[in-house]
Design brief:
Layout (H helix, E strand, L loop, with lengths): L1 H8 L2 H8 L6 H26 L14 H22 L1 H4 L3 H25 L10 H24 L3
Helix pairs in contact: 2-4, 3-4, 3-7, 6-7
């Protein structure tokens, strides 16, 4: 496993991200990762909070347009996350915390998909918010908060 991680860390892209003095390397990748996270989680939280009763006068139907925005943020984070991982693969990949963070992100993405299918799925009543939908919103808020905390903690662990 460590040999595989060392190979990743030795790629040209990883070396450039890690060692370049250019502002376009690590600082820009990290900034884009943070912005992507803000777009993804911000749009998701807007929907989750609406499902939990915040802004009840805002209709649910137009909030469906948040899903492409969430996916845009997700793909920014996926690409920049791979770049950040590659730059420090041997230390990040060898920790359980990194795997834990990825599991949290995967579960949060599943929560997004389940929320979309329950709220906007075929035959779904866009005005009906069930207990299960509220539960998904709470789970999503908790999962994203935990994933962000795990990601930030990785810098210090």
């Amino acid at each position: 496993m460590m040999q595989w991680l060392s190979t990743i860390e030795g790629t040209g892209l990883a070396v450039w991200v890690r060692e370049s003095n250019s502002i376009w390397a690590y600082p820009t990748v990290l900034t884009l990762h943070t912005l992507g996270l803000g777009v993804l989680v911000g749009a998701n939280w807007a929907l989750d909070l609406r499902l939990l009763g915040v802004g009840e006068r805002i209709p649910l139907a137009p909030l469906r347009q948040l899903f492409p925005i969430m996916w845009f943020g997700f793909w920014i984070n996926a690409i920049t996350g791979v770049m950040l991982f590659a730059a420090d693969a041997t230390s990040k990949g060898a920790t359980g915390l990194f795997v834990f963070k990825l599991v949290l992100v995967a579960l949060a993405v599943v929560a997004i998909q389940l929320t979309k299918s329950r709220v906007y799925g075929s035959g779904a009543d866009a005005g009906a918010i069930t207990g299960a939908t509220r539960g998904l919103a709470v789970a999503s808020l908790v999962l994203w908060t935990a994933a962000i905390a795990a990601g930030r903690y990785m810098a210090y662990a």
